[in-house]
Automatic annotation (TrEMBL):
It comes from the Archaea. PROSITE patterns: TYR_PHOSPHATASE_1, TYR_PHOSPHATASE_2. Keywords: Hydrolase. Residues 63-131 form the Tyrosine specific protein phosphatases domain. CDD domains: HDc. This is HD domain-containing protein. InterPro entries: HD/PDEase_dom, HD_domain, Prot-tyrosine_phosphatase-like, Tyr_Pase_AS, Tyr_Pase_dom, TYR_PHOSPHATASE_DUAL_dom. It comes from Thermofilum pendens. It holds the Pfam family HD. GO terms for molecular function: hydrolase activity.
Length: 337
């Protein structure tokens, strides 16, 4: 068991003796991140919050924020003692602990990860590293308020509340939103994107497939209509709507006169969201994606060299990236690193 900060512990599977000892100190909440891998009895008055994450893997950081981090922050703000655990006390609980440091202390990514790994040892899986990196960027670049507003928008509409229960769907939405930001960051030096471009890309990525929950046909049209109802001064709503509409290959992204009138950077944002939609689930297995870098005249998608059987459909990636390549003059390549 390790102490993360005052009143916050994380560990491997706890036993009843450890829990009883902590209960005498005031333990009131245990967060269990395992898939029923640990057996123990809770002391009287101690609450258990379950959010199962596959071993050696991770899930969309947006869902973790909503279902795990927010309850933890609330408990901590009330002066309650909390314990977060997975099976080994290294990867899943370590990643959540680092996310807590980012959220509570606004700790930079490297500092948060270093602080946790110094106490736990061991190695994280690519999916765990990725989730913490993506979460820290959303918090530091876009702000918790935007994330809160976006999740409230989703949760406040009955038909979309199931998104948070469908881990595969949420993982895909998160993947598209965050890969879109990776693409823009890789192009930042050339295009000088502003915060509104990043915020618009992230929102469009997280909303892009919502039309599927309403209609299986023309879901990009329905999705664009849904996106138009989102309210935030942080985004360019017209750009969000266009990016959601054009995430499908069948639309004429480059020939959209209204999008052209918004400027080249807006076109690139929409093209980035479409390209990001080539990825199904970056969190799958131990992790199916590492990042995107620019190397000369190419945007290089970096994938884990040793992954648990996952890969990217390079044909689909090439097709979805055509508008992006046309606008930037860059090739899109894949490299296993």
């Amino acid at each position: 068991m390790r102490l993360l900060r005052e009143g916050v512990y994380w560990s491997s599977c706890p036993d009843s003796e450890l829990l009883s000892s902590l209960a005498r100190k005031g333990l009131s909440l245990v967060v269990d991140l395992t898939e029923s891998e640990c057996a123990y009895e809770l002391p009287p008055g101690v609450e258990r919050l379950r959010y199962p994450i596959p071993d050696y893997s991770f899930v969309a950081h947006e869902g973790v924020y909503l279902k795990v981090l927010k309850p933890l922050v609330k408990a901590i703000s009330e002066g309650r003692i909390v314990l977060v655990h997975c099976r080994g006390g290294i990867g899943r609980s370590g990643a959540v602990s680092a996310m807590l440091l980012v959220l509570l202390d606004r700790m930079p990514l490297e500092s948060a990860v270093r602080a946790v790994k110094a106490k736990s040892g061991g190695e994280w899986m690519p999916a765990q590293e990725l989730a913490v990196r993506w979460f820290e960027r959303v918090v530091s670049m876009l702000g918790v308020e935007l994330l809160e507003g976006l999740l409230s928008f989703l949760g406040g509409q009955r038909v979309f509340s199931e998104v948070f229960e469908d881990m595969g769907a949420l993982n895909h939405l998160s993947t598209v939103a965050n890969v879109s930001l990776d693409i823009l960051e890789a192009l930042q030096q050339a295009y000088k994107f502003e915060e509104r471009h990043y915020a618009s890309a992230y929102v469009a990525g997280l909303l892009h497939d919502l039309g599927r929950f309403v209609s299986s046909s023309e879901h990009h049209v329905v999705g664009a209509q849904i996106a138009g109802r989102f309210k935030s001064q942080r985004v360019d709503l017209e750009l969000v709507v266009k990016a959601v509409y054009h995430h499908r290959r069948r639309t004429d992204l480059l020939g959209d006169a209204e999008l052209v009138a918004m400027g080249l950077r807006a076109q690139v944002v929409a093209a980035a969201v479409r390209a990001a939609d080539a990825f199904k689930d970056a969190y799958w297995g131990t992790g199916c994606y590492k990042g995107i870098t620019r190397r000369g005249d190419a945007l290089v998608v970096e994938l884990p060299a040793e992954s648990s059987g996952c890969h990217v459909d390079e044909g689909r990636l090439s097709e979805k990236s055509r508008p992006l390549m046309g606008l930037t003059g860059l090739r899109v390549e894949v490299d296993y690193v």
